[in-house]
Structures are given as structure tokens and as C-alpha cells.
Amino acid sequence: MAPLLPHLGAVLTASVSWQQLDPGQVPPEADRALVRRIAGARYDAAVVLTSFSQSPWPAAYLCRLAGVPVRVGTSKEFGGAGLTHWVPAPPDGTHQVDRMLHVLERAGVPPDGTGLRLDLPDSARDEAREALAGQGIGPGEPYALLLPGASCQSRRYPPERFARVARLLAGAGLRVVVAGSPGESALVERAGGGLAAGQTGLGVPALAALVAGSAAVVCNNSGGAHLASAFGRPVVLLFAGTEQVGQYVPRFTPAAVLSVPTPCAPCRQLRCPYDLQCLDIPPEDVAGETLRLAGARVPGIR
Question: Pairing with 289, which of 49, 170, 268, 283 sits 20 to 30 Å away (CA)?
Fold first, then answer.
């Protein structure tokens, strides 16, 4: 994602202990090494951005050990001197964008708007055009982009249902592209149902270009929904019961949010023990919403 953010100076990636389910997955030395990396960069401030269910204190304490003088975050819990600027927490149901901007505003950094913005390099657009041409989709030809992946099983609409959606869309006259990361090749192939070759060799910038050029995006509650919002593309969001819908629903683009209410939501589980009842959405409904949103932009799609 970094190449799409022109104002970003650098990115540090790390597997941190407070984000792991397995206590032995990240040894203590990994945290100590991260402290040294942060200390070596001599940052002036750290802004810890979290969801309502996450705590800023582990990251804040690590930054304190690294000598970062200003540490900003929000929490309902007391955490001592980890934060130098402890921002009162907004209500739990606050949209995640507003939650993060709330932290910045209280720290004296007024936001420059609330919409998402990403900048696509020409190379990404060229790569996306080549991928589409490989499927026989020419410049300007409308297509629906299906993104069946998600970070965990509990957020994934079944690939067999994605395949049914793809067939319904194709039958209505809309071309279909199925895409994902290199690690999702098998999932993408199943979701395509033999209808279209899956696109799994693209990097994030080219995948973002596919989103930007689509007539509509169909995806789980994952990065694809945020990309669609950033580029103003209509999105059919298959929202699992892992989170509260109001915290992540797209606000700046036409959207249909489909989900089945269940008593266990929001569960925040990585694996669903109940056969994904919250995603028991008929493919016909998904295809219908996709055609409705795409048809508003592409006359002739039935």
C-alpha cells in the first residue's frame, strides 16, 4: 500500500507480540529488536491508532522504551506513563475513520477532510490493463471485480457462492474478473468457478488499479472495500459478524452491505464455529445488488 501514499516517508514492518494468538510465536527478542529499530530512527512522536477493542498501551510502552518523547493514543483503561497524551475514547460504535481522526484532532492535528485518497502510479494502471487484456477485456469495457480473500476464515464468503455470483453476473452480460494475493491462488480459482482466469500475480498497486477501473467490486470486509471507497467505485460488501457494521461501512461511494444478523455478532473471531451463518447470503442477492450498482454507471446491463 505504501506506493499509493505519496506523503509517506517510510514503512517499518514487524510481527509484534501483542497481536499474536500464540504466546510462543514472537520471542521476546523480537520486541527488543523493534525497540532498537525505533530508537535508531529517533522519531519525534508516535501516534498509536487502534480499534475500540484494541489497546494502545503495548505499542505506547514499546515507544517509550525506544525514547520517543511524544506518544499519543486513546483508551478507556489506565496505562500509566505509556502515553504522554491520553485522548478520551470516543463511543465504541464510532466509525474507524472518525475514531482515528479523533485522536489526531485531540493531539492538535486537524484533519484535511475525511475521505480516503490513494494515488495510482502509471505503472500500476499499465499492469492492470495488461491483466485485463489477457482476459479479453478491452479499455473501457465494464467488468465486476470479485475479491474473495480476507485475513481470516470467519470473514470469507464461501468461494462456491462467489463462483455462483460470477456465473450470474456473466449471464447478465457483465464481464467478471476474480483477483487476490499470490497466497490466495487456490481460493481465487475456486471463486472463479472456471469462468475466468484468476488474477493473483499482481501487486497491491496493480490490484488497486483493477478496483479503480471496475464497474463494481464484490468483496468481504477486507482491504478491497477500502480500495473501492478510496476510488469511488460501487461496492457490494459481504460483511461477516466479526465486527460492528457501523465502524467500517463505506461512506463515500455507493454501497450495498449484505449480512445476516446473528446473536454471536460481533464475535471478533478468526474462525467461525457456526458454519458462517452471518454470511449465509444467497448469491442471487449478491449478483442482484452488483448489477444494480453497476447498472447505474453502465447502461445496458440487465
Answer: 268
